[in-house]
Amino acid sequence: MNIFVGSLPFSIEEADLRESFEAYGAVDSVKIITDKFTGRSKGFGFVEMPNDEEAQKAIDELNGATVQGRAIVVNKSEPKPEGERRSFNSNSRGGDSRGGYGGGNSRGGDNRGGGNRGGY
């Protein structure tokens, strides 16, 4: 079972997280998500446990537990359906690129010019 772990202290290491979950059973993998530019923890991660019963017990007992002074969030990780993934195409901010004074602006909205306040 893939388990989401949130509200992690930024200083926690993967080995520490693994140790917390190994108290409930075997752990296949632990991954704390980090910022790709700074390398700093984003405060959440994932733990993979092969036995669903052990994983559920870990979720039940660790959700809300205090780790290094922070109450962590632990629940079953559900993958997003493929259609809900965010796309990063050129029009991903919601602007209408069909023309007008403000079409395709970065504030979203329609083509009535609400986002671009410059001259003509």
Structure description:
This protein is α+β, with helices and mostly antiparallel strands and 120 residues long. The protein has a domain of 77 residues: 2-Layer Sandwich (Alpha-Beta Plaits). It contains two helices and six strands. A four-stranded antiparallel beta sheet has the order 2-3-1-6, covered by helices on one side. β2 and β3 form a beta hairpin. The longest helix has 11 residues. The mean pLDDT is 82.
Please outline the helices and strands:
Blueprint: E1 2-6, H1 14-22, E2 29-34, E3 41-48, H2 52-62, E4 66-67, E5 70-71, E6 73-76
Antiparallel strand pairs: 1-3, 1-6, 2-3, 4-5
Short description:
The chain has 120 residues and is an alpha+beta fold. The chain has a domain at 2-78: RRM (RNA recognition motif) domain (Alpha-Beta Plaits, 2-Layer Sandwich). It has helices at 14-22, 52-62; strands at 2-6, 29-34, 41-48, 66-67, 70-71, 73-76.
The CATH class of the domain at 2-78 is identified as Alpha Beta
Low-confidence stretches: none
- The name of the CATH architecture of the domain at 2-78 is 2-Layer Sandwich
Shape: globular
Question: What would you give as the CATH superfamily of the domain at 2-78?
Answer: RRM (RNA recognition motif) domain
Biggest sheet record: 4 strands, antiparallel
Provide the CATH topology of the domain at 2-78. Alpha-Beta Plaits
Number of helices: 2
Q: For the record, give the distance between the C-alpha atoms at the N and C termini, rounded to a whole number.
A: 57 Å
Amount of beta strand: 15-25%
Helix content: 10-25%
Structural class of the secondary structure composition?
Answer: alpha+beta
Q: Whole-number radius of gyration?
A: 21 Å
Note the run of SSEs as H and E. Answer: EHEEHEEE
Arithmetic mean pLDDT? 82
Strand order of the largest sheet: 2-3-1-6
Can you count the beta strands? 6
